[in-house]
Amino acid sequence: MRHLDPSSLSLRDLFRIEAEEQTKALTDALLALEKDPCQGDMLECCMRAAHSLKGAARIVGIHPAVTVAHAMEDLFVLAQGGRVRLAPAQIDLLLSGVDLLSALAGQGEGENGFDEDIWQADAERFAAALTATPAAAVDEDRVPEEVSVAGQVAIVPAVPEILPETPPAASPERLLPERAGEGDRALRVSAENLNRLLDMAGESLVETRRLAPLEQSLLRLKRMHHQAAAALDALQAALPVNMLDERAASALEEARRRLMDCRRQLSGGLDELEASNHRTTNLAHRLYNQALMVRMRPFGDGMGAFPRMVRDIARELGKQVRFEILGERTQVDRDILEKLDAPLGHLLRNALDHGMETPDERRAAGKPAEGFVRVEASHQAGALQIIVSDDGRGIDLDAIRRTITARGLAAQDTVARLSEAELLEFLFLPGFTMKSDVTEISGRGVGLDIVQDMIRQVRGRVRIISRQGEGTRFRLELPLTLSVVRALLVDIGGEPYAFPFAHIAGAMKVPADRVRTVEGRQHILIDGAAVGLVGAHQVLGCTAPDGTPEELCVVLLGAGDHMFALVVDGFTGGRELVVQPLDPRLGKIKDISAASLTEDGAPLLIIDVEDMLRSLEKLAATDRLAPVGREIGTQSGARRKRVLVVDDSFTVRELQRKLLDHHGYDVEVAVDGMDGWNALRQGGFDLVVSDIDMPRMDGIELVRRIRHDPVLKALPVMILSYKDREEDRLRGLEVGADYYLTKGSFQNDALIDAVIDLIGEGAA
Fold first, then answer.
1. How confident is the model at residue 93 (pLDDT cuts 50, 70, 90)?
2. Phi, psi for residue 50 in degrees, rounded to 5
3. Does the domain at residues 484-621 carry the CATH identifier 2.40.50.180?
4. Residue 366: left (phi > 0), alpha (psi -120 to 50), or beta?
5. Where are the domains of the chain?
6. pLDDT tens across 282-323, in order?
7. Handedness of CA 181, 183, 189, 194 (dihedral sign)
8. What percent of the chain has a predicted confidence (pLDDT) above 90?
9. Parallel, antiparallel, or unpaired for β 642-646 and 666-670?
10. What's the average model confidence in pLDDT over 195-210?
11. What is the C-alpha separation between 705 and 505, in angstroms, rounded?
């Protein structure tokens, strides 16, 4: 049962909360009864849930819900008495009643929010259909009248449609009898309050670490006292015995006595501080761990809607599937659990539609008619591992090859050489599908790219293991929590930065004499492969130290041919950091994902490794990698004027870069407006050349931001677009562009003439 503050909620809110829990209990119990209609505890659970909903709806005044719940309760009472044995037809009808109750609970009050007459008619049709089924009948061939749910018609007892507007919400609690004895009570707390609690617990942990330096300073003071006492003893021993009169000897003895009192007092205070530091640190750790546990929820809490979904889709496709959830009690960060809903839904739909065979196909292949789809969660090596598996037909690699070739994604001879792992990676591309027909379940080319995006957002990874004819396994490896990250702390330009361990390939110290220069680029050998060397100062835009050290501290980022060796100033060690999100008003900061605090309370930035890899690849593609040990811009000769080219077309970017570089300009490229805006905020550009139509942020918005920025507002901007209409040109100039050219200007000197007109000629 949930314990809530009624004063903060309306009756409608209270009913909606209870309906979420009771409809979840009804769905779980009905799915269990479909497998074994004689389970008395499940019938009792259904009857109690329907009875509770009827009473709550009567109090709130939602009469259609009273009608539906009462009809369901009557049927459950008959089943408990042995006068009815629930067949699949009745289960279908009862599940459609659950959908109707969920929809009623989600309706708002007022004239536009709830038309009771329409809903009452739907409820009465449902009750009539339920009554029309003979009490002792199990004949599934009888089809009662249609039941309309606010204009959406579901044919009973065919598989009912789940209302898309208000699906049954997953509840953190199950009200099934086997869980009733656990005694756990749930309290609704806002996410903001939970985050604030965790932040304060993390701050208290940081504050306790401030006692350690104080303890060390007192230890040094104790040693100094000991040295002072020894010096006093040495002074007394050095003086002749008869040289001191009684007064001097008494003063010397008093000094020794006072010094000993100070030592005893200091020792006692130090012992007390050590004990207090130990207790406070232990308490802070316990507080932090407990606050962290508040953010954790059982994995099963997020799986509530999937058994019903799998059951309905399997019946629609005419397939027999046993759905299993293992590791329901595995603790998962609440934010990760919420993000898992869509990816797991896509994986399960794919398993049912693409992977699972029909009963006849399975029998022909020597398999049982009923297949299985399983979702399993566990903690492995400090990470959350989720496996979605099935025993279906597996993934046809030859079909992937044919699809890749047909879509022109790679040449046929190249596709033939791709490994299994490389072929399976194509499944994660946006729009990639191997189905020729489009259904409500799949075939639209969306799904696995959403899975990949979600995994990357939470700093995880996904792997596919498939055996044709035996089945497929998707293994998702995710962090246990988004609130804490284990990271490598480094020093760059005198500032601390953190690299999440999960996103780096390694870290090492490399002697400077092992650096080799190949075709003007510095490399080091890692396992026999040449890995490009890049200074972190160049990527982050900070000042590099003078000279080259004898030993380089290197962080390895990326993998395979896309690996880079990032040189930092030094390693500080590994730490668990409390992740502090950046103020959303800052927008996306280039190469940075979040912030945290060091042990002494100093702020540090957490590196966005995926973003930094894109920055490194961009620097490598434009031949702008500066040698390690040399500051940016210290090349001999006059400074070249810098131009930022912003265009989402790789071909256009490269054409502009080569043209401008040939005329003596230093060119940097950005793949869209947002990428260009992040680059501009690093400063140092003399001109921007931008396209208009781009994802994330178009050229018009980019120019508008430049003109409203106090630092960048005087920066010359040129728009280079395929659009040559007069209204497009006026629109670009009105927001503040200095020039508007069409991309046909590549064919003559108009582009270079405009650049010279705006910022002068490039270096010779």
1. confident
2. -65, -40
3. yes
4. left
5. 6-168, 191-295, 299-479, 484-621, 642-759
6. 888 888 778 777 778 889 888 888 888 888 888 888 999 999
7. negative
8. 9
9. parallel
10. 74
11. 37
